[in-house]
Amino acid sequence: MSWECKPLWTKACLFFEKAFQADHDDPAFGLWCAMGLELLARSSVAKFSPTLLAEPDRDHKHLLQVLNLSSDQAIGKSIAMTQVISLCKKLIPDFTEEQVKLALAVIARRNEELHSGVAAFVEYPTHQWRAGFYKCCKILAESQEESLEALFGSQEGVVAEGIVKEMEEKVVKETLSLIALHKNAFESQTEKDRLQLATEAKTRGEILSRQKHHRVTCPACDCVATIEGDPYGLERVKPTDDTIIVRQSVKPTKFGCKACGLKLNGYGALLSAGVAEDFNHTMTYTPEEYYGLINPNDESAIRSVAEDHGYYFEDAFFFSND
Amino acid sequence: MSINKKLTDYGWAEVDEIRSTEALLVLAKSIGKIIPHPDGSHLNVVKPKSFAKAINGSFSNKYGYGEFPFHTDTAFWLQPARYIVMASMLASDTDTVIIDLGQLVNMLSNNIQMLAKSAIFSVKTTQVSYYTRAILGNTLSDGIRFDSCCMSPANESARCLQKNIIETSQKIEPVKIRWSGSNAVVIDNWKALHGRKAIDQEFESRTLARIYVG
Questions:
Q1: Euclidean distance between the first and final Cα of chain B, in Å?
Q2: What is the ipTM score, two decimals?
Q3: Nearest to residue A8, comparing CAs of A34, A33, A45?
Q4: What percentage of chain B reaches a pLDDT higher than 70?
Q5: Of A73, A210, A230, B182, which is most buried, counting CB atoms within 10 Å of its CB?
């Protein structure tokens, strides 16, 4: 069983080559692309460690297979694709919710194509997913210090890069137009209303900043707005005398302004609007909360944990609701 | 000229006065870190085998006592051993033959060199099977993995590359290493391909000591 990064990457290249041999509006193109994406995502995870791909089990059966330490001839079981995509999001900062949605949609079609009689890629035409798919592949390839050209070959690689660039330019154009629209609408209000909205936005920003949002200045109305996003990377844990502070980097993916109503989605749009500030989630826990400690005098908490672990108290069997 | 300089310039270097396996191990350690064999030993002994006695899929299984085509040792490893250090403690009439990758690449057209970047092979042995590229680096000149026994072309580029490498290598006059009983050879396994002349099994007791170096 080869779960190493390089063989997975090479097989992904081979599958994409098969995809590009088909017409781009042929359902076979979609199917080979979906299967290529699966291998590409797995190779991206394997770049961190191939052990992450092993299905967890009590005896480490599959992990031992990955490490070539198993005498068992059975084929090791790898984690499901949904989990691979979720790992990509956790491990690769540029792989945001936008890419997760696209990847899961393509993988769902692949499953439908292979597990049912539905013509899944006929119902999901190429133009609906191609640009986002290429962006997704670009991010996964670059996370392995590779490129779209290395993945798709020189001809298709150049075309794909062009499509991604155009998509990004389209996002910039649409974002700037949206900002202009909200700016005009805000400025058309009376000074009194604008002041009122700015005050409300400031208060709301203050509240949201304590709920995993980060305050920024709205590019349309200059009021206090907020961004939120997906945490990624290592949690930085700092114990103090009576609390434990956990910090984690966040890649912003959503913007909202209470004052002018501007809303933006996706890192690309936030970047175009100049509000894609990196920030951190800071969570403060008591040691009991962080380590899941139980007060030995709290009988109901002890019962609850015991029951979670399969222990049933005798009195539970004498329960009656009559 | 130093061994390292010869390896850089030609992809191989012959060393005299190697009369024991201990001396061969010292030579190997001077090149780099020895890669142990799966049984833990640093050195293994290679003897000619008949078709029947050889491991399925090996060169002996395919060619028996016949000529071995040019290949990369350990081509089935995820990263083939960088150097091979070999010696025969007894004189042998069966030469080891070597061709330099640089010479091979120069004889391949630019088109084939470009094609090499997209060539994908499947590697299959009794223990592993996976997909890999023939080039070890960014271009064919950086290094090659090539073994027609365990590597099969998986796409059209690979089929074309394999055909061209086989045809071109036959046009090159190889370097012949004659085993005197006191010489050794170090081969840059990424930058040279090596093979073996056919063995006259009636008289030949060719026994090579081989060490892989990373």
A1: 22
A2: 0.80
A3: A45
A4: 98
A5: A230
Over the stretch A227-240, which tens digit does the pLDDT of each residue have?
Answer: 999 887 778 898 88
Residue A291's pLDDT band (cuts 50, 70, 90):
confident
pLDDT for residue A1 is more than 70: no
Set of chain A residues whose Cβ sits within 8 Å of the Cβ of B151: none
- Does A2 contact chain B (CB < 8 Å)? yes
Q: What is the 3 state secondary structure string of chain B? A: CCHHHHHHHHCEEEEECCCCHHHHHHHHHHHCCEECCCCCCCCEEECCCCCCCCCCCCHHHHHCCCCEEEECCCCCCCCCCCEEEEEECCCEEEEEEEEEHHHHHHHCCHHHHHHHHHCEEEEECCCCEEEEECECCCCHHHCECCCCCCEEECCHHHHHHHHHHHHHHHHCCCEEEEECCCEEEEEECCCEEEEECCCCCCCCCCCEEEEEEC
Asked if the Cβ–Cβ distance from B118 to A153 is below 8 Å, we say yes
Structure-block tokens of residue B100: 């330099």
The tokens describing B203, both together, are 């008289």
For residue A201, the model assigns a pLDDT of: 96
Judged against a pLDDT cut of 70, whether residue B166 lies above it is answered with yes
**Residues from chain B contacting residue A4 (CB–CB below 8 Å):** 78, 130
Radius of gyration of chain B (CA): 17
Nearest-neighbour CA in chain B from A47: distance (Å): 14
| Of residues A2, A6, A10, nearest to B128 (C-beta) | A2
Query: Burial letters for A75-91: b for 16+ Cβ neighbours within 10 Å, e otherwise?
Result: ebebbebeebbebbbeb
Shortest distance, CA B78 to any CA of chain A (angstroms): 8
- The encoded tokens of residue B76 equal 């089935």
CB contact under 8 A, B128 and A4: no
Q: Mind telling me how many Å the CA of B130 is from chain A's nearest CA?
A: 6
